[in-house]
Amino acid sequence: MFAYIRGKIEDITENAVIIEANGVGYELICPNPFQFHGVTDTVKIFTYHHVREDAQLLYGFKTVEEKELFTKILGVSGVGPKGALAVLASTTVEDFAIAIEHEDEKFLTTFPGVGKKTARQMILDLKGKLTFDIRTDVTDKNPSTISNSKALEEALEALKALGYSDSEIRQIKPELKKLEVLETDGYIRKGLALLMK
């Protein structure tokens, strides 16, 4: 129904951004709403319109690849929008595709709500179908390339254990992702520095 919405960010909550376009405020549920924090220019957010019996929801994504991956994951038996969103909030499109191609169940089970059975179902349903518009050939990459994401996730869990809230951690995650590959301790130190600013 909506391919994308272009407008200005009016508000950001833990789960969504409010974007105003032509006088209408749209609530878009996003994997990481805080990635739009500080954006003052007009933005283009790709959308997925999800209809169920009791609600109509709009999901928002920074890139078309994120949106396409969301729809692919929704096609996996037993995975709903909440689960698909949790995957996108925790990793990149490319790293997820690499994990699927290499049948890395251990990596897939790090996502909230994904057990071994769901991980196997994801591999069964998605293997060979996720090379769409990904700029590198995921089948040629070594599984070790996703170790960066694992170290980052471990660091974020450690920060949570130190008492920082999910919203605080979501705000710094995009900055940590931009860093060169670090060990878990390195991400923790950088994360603490950002949180104490």
TrEMBL record:
Transmembrane segments: none annotated. It comes from the Bacteria. Residues 71-90, 106-125 form the Helix-hairpin-helix DNA-binding motif class domain. One of its GO terms (molecular function) is four-way junction helicase activity. It is found in: Cytoplasm. Coiled coil: none annotated. The keyword Cytoplasm applies. GO terms for biological process: DNA recombination; DNA repair. SMART domains: HhH1 (SM00278). Residues 147-197 are annotated as: Domain III. The keyword Cell membrane does not apply. Keywords: ATP-binding, Cytoplasm, DNA damage, DNA recombination, DNA repair, DNA-binding, Helicase, Hydrolase, Nucleotide-binding. Its main location: cytoplasm. NCBIfam families: ruvA. The RuvA-RuvB-RuvC complex processes Holliday junction (HJ) DNA during genetic recombination and DNA repair, while the RuvA-RuvB complex plays an important role in the rescue of blocked DNA replication forks via replication fork reversal (RFR). RuvA specifically binds to HJ cruciform DNA, conferring on it an open structure. The RuvB hexamer acts as an ATP-dependent pump, pulling dsDNA into and through the RuvAB complex. HJ branch migration allows RuvC to scan DNA until it finds its consensus sequence, where it cleaves and resolves the cruciform DNA. Belongs to the RuvA family. Has three domains with a flexible linker between the domains II and III and assumes an 'L' shape. Domain III is highly mobile and contacts RuvB. Homotetramer. Forms an RuvA(8)-RuvB(12)-Holliday junction (HJ) complex. HJ DNA is sandwiched between 2 RuvA tetramers; dsDNA enters through RuvA and exits via RuvB. An RuvB hexamer assembles on each DNA strand where it exits the tetramer. Each RuvB hexamer is contacted by two RuvA subunits (via domain III) on 2 adjacent RuvB subunits; this complex drives branch migration. In the full resolvosome a probable DNA-RuvA(4)-RuvB(12)-RuvC(2) complex forms which resolves the HJ. This is Holliday junction branch migration complex subunit RuvA. It comes from Gracilibacillus halotolerans.
